[in-house]
């Protein structure tokens, strides 16, 4: 629970009810973002969509207001990462969960410590902690550049056949696109290996035994 008193303390009753009904994690989810600016609402929605598209799991409109059982906290302690992105890690623990919707109030005191720069850094931290897809984009861009070079080569050949080729233009452009594409493709392939090493270095638990017979 944040210390700025914006989270509704009355939601705790719902947390306890959810826990008593067998849920190990109960998320506090904002029912609306009317008090936020249009920019913050739009960027928050975009963040959750991009995060989901990247293959990571999260709970939309949930900050860090939640109830967690002792068992889930023990499971969370098995993650030894220095840069813990809790909004992405907690949903991967695998326990039964529920949501309690509440309306977030106005800040009682102080000012927000999350300007645009910090929000962007937070989004980058979340994406890079759970996805290596950005590395695949480099590979894709390299392949696309090579395809463009091949297309330009075909275009130059056709232009030569019709006598419309511009001397020197084709060889220069094809060389730029082809060499650039090969460089990006090589970086992308190296990046794929580095990404696998990066994910393995986190040593995240693959499973957790809840009960035994």
UniProtKB/TrEMBL annotation:
Q: Which domain of life is it from?
A: Bacteria
Entry keywords, A to Z:
Glycosyltransferase, Membrane, Transferase, Transmembrane, Transmembrane helix
Q: Tell me one GO molecular function of this protein.
A: glycosyltransferase activity
Q: Which residues cross the membrane?
A: 137-162, 174-194
Q: Does the keyword Transmembrane helix apply?
A: yes
Tell where it localizes.
Answer: Membrane
Q: Name one cellular component (GO) term.
A: plasma membrane
Q: Which InterPro entries match?
A: Glycosyltransferase_2 (IPR050256)
Q: Membrane topology for this entry?
A: Multi-pass membrane protein
The keyword Transmembrane helix is annotated on this UniProt entry: yes
Family membership noted in the UniProt record: Belongs to the glycosyltransferase 2 family.
By what name is this protein known?
Answer: Glycosyltransferase, group 2 family
